Fold this protein.
Amino acid sequence: MSFSLSKEQKAEVIGSIRRFFSEKLELELSELQAGYLLDYFSAEIAPFAHNEGVTDAQKSLARWCEDLPSTCFQEPLTYWGGDDKSQRVRGKPDR
């Protein structure tokens, strides 16, 4: 599984990684080091998130399919039921 970031997105993520390391770990990373770390996370960790997203989508789709009959079902033979107007035969006047 692979995904790509735009140049702008990659620059933002690298900046965020560098800030995290600086503020939380008191380590200064170069852009190159942060880029390698991003590549590592993308290859090693991102598939977990991707697979979880696929599983969630599969569950949602299965629930939707199970509920399909109740949301899309139309009762047949309803012409003669209900109000007085629907009980008239088409084309015949009321008497």
User: Anything to note?
Assistant: DSSP finds three helices and no strands in the chain. Residues 46-72 form the longest helix (27 residues).
